[in-house]
């Protein structure tokens, strides 16, 4: 019988977990990270399940792996794994993985203050705020983000009919804003969010078929984003992002913040140069900014950036023993 041994750095970005797998990493076929992501999902999804699901992970677990760059102009490539799958892009995951990688010398960028990464969703750049030998903050210049659908009416079983917008910020989000029957996040319990979000996601995917204009591999609504009034006076808005089967993001969610800024920009409420401070369910903040206007296919779009921080919590050697009946992990509920 075989025991697979994985070396990991564990941490969190603004409250949401990040597990950086440093080795061994499987060889992935493909010329781009989108192609390599597809190969990983086809041949190596057992690694994701083993390291993200219980008993080695949990509902909120999120991870990343760094690979050599696909484009010689980049410093590295990044692959994202979590309980919900292998994401095209993950903002908090990038902040956390980069913080731990740079502090531990996992790879050495050409410029330690500006790191260029090939992600499945496209090229991203990160400004690194160093304080001595520690990374105090990371600002990600994310991929182009856009509002895809507005005012989509959904009949949610056991609740009510609601209106959602769908926006893309690296993943597709169903955005639920205050409306009759939903006044604010403060009115929702965690149990409410966990119960209703999968129904909203399923209804959205039944109502519309979505794929990214430049990469048809990126398709379907994967997240639900509940909006609300901020509690922190520095923030412009508060949110709770649902993903996977039972996960609520503890961070303000990087791709969710990007999608939200794209929605607000499309409505004329944000313009290039504007800041957008987003508060999470636990009170942590991402500093968002609309960097520029652009287009994605026929959609008006923005280039957003997000700044946050991360802390390493430990070094982890994980065994996946084939004798273990739960070697492939499990979920409950």
TrEMBL record:
Q: Name one Pfam family in it.
A: Pro_racemase
UniProt-recorded Gene Ontology molecular function terms: 4-hydroxyproline epimerase activity
**InterPro entries in the record:** Pro_racemase_fam
- State the source organism's domain of life: Bacteria
Quote the PANTHER family the UniProt record gives: BIFUNCTIONAL TRANS-3-HYDROXY-L-PROLINE DEHYDRATASE_2-EPIMERASE (PTHR33442:SF5), TRANS-3-HYDROXY-L-PROLINE DEHYDRATASE (PTHR33442)
UniProt family annotation: Belongs to the proline racemase family.
Know the name of this protein?
Answer: Proline racemase
* UniProt organism field: Maricaulis maris
């Amino acid at each position: 019988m075989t025991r697979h041994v994985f070396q990991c750095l564990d941490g969190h970005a603004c409250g949401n977990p990040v597990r950086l797998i440093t080795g061994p990493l499987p060889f992935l076929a493909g010329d781009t990270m989108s192609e390599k992501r597809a190969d990983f999902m086809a041949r190596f999804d057992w690694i994701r399940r083993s390291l993200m699901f219980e008993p080695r992970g949990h509902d909120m677990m999120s991870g990343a792996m760094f690979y050599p760059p696909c484009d010689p102009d980049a410093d590295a490539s990044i692959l994202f794994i979590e309980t919900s799958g292998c994401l095209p892009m993950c903002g908090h995951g990038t902040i956390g993985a980069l913080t731990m990688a740079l502090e531990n010398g996992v790879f050495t960028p050409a410029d330690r203050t500006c790191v260029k990464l090939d992600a499945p969703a496209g090229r991203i750049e990160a400004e690194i705020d160093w304080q001595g030998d520690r990374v105090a903050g990371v600002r990600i210049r994310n991929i182009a983000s856009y509002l895809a659908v507005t005012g989509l009416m959904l009949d949610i079983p056991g609740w009510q009919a609601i209106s959602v917008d769908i926006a893309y910020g690296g993943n597709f989000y169903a955005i639920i804003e205050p409306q009759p029957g939903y006044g604010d996040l403060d009115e929702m319990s965690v149990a409410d969010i966990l119960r209703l979000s999968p129904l909203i996601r399923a209804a959205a995917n039944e109502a519309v078929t979505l794929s990214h204009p430049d990469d048809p591999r990126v398709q379907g609504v994967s997240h639900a984003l509940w909006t609300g009034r901020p509690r922190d006076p520095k923030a412009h808005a508060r949110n709770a992002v649902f993903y996977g089967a039972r996960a609520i993001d503890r961070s303000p969610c990087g791709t969710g913040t990007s999608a939200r800024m794209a929605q607000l920009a499309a409505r004329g409420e944000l313009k290039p140069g504007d800041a957008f401070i987003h508060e999470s369910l636990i009170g942590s903040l991402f500093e968002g900014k609309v960097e520029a206007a652009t287009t994605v296919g026929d959609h008006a779009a923005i280039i957003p950036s997000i700044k946050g921080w991360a802390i390493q919590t430990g070094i982890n050697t994980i065994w996946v023993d084939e004798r273990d009946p739960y070697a492939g992990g499990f979920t409950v509920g």
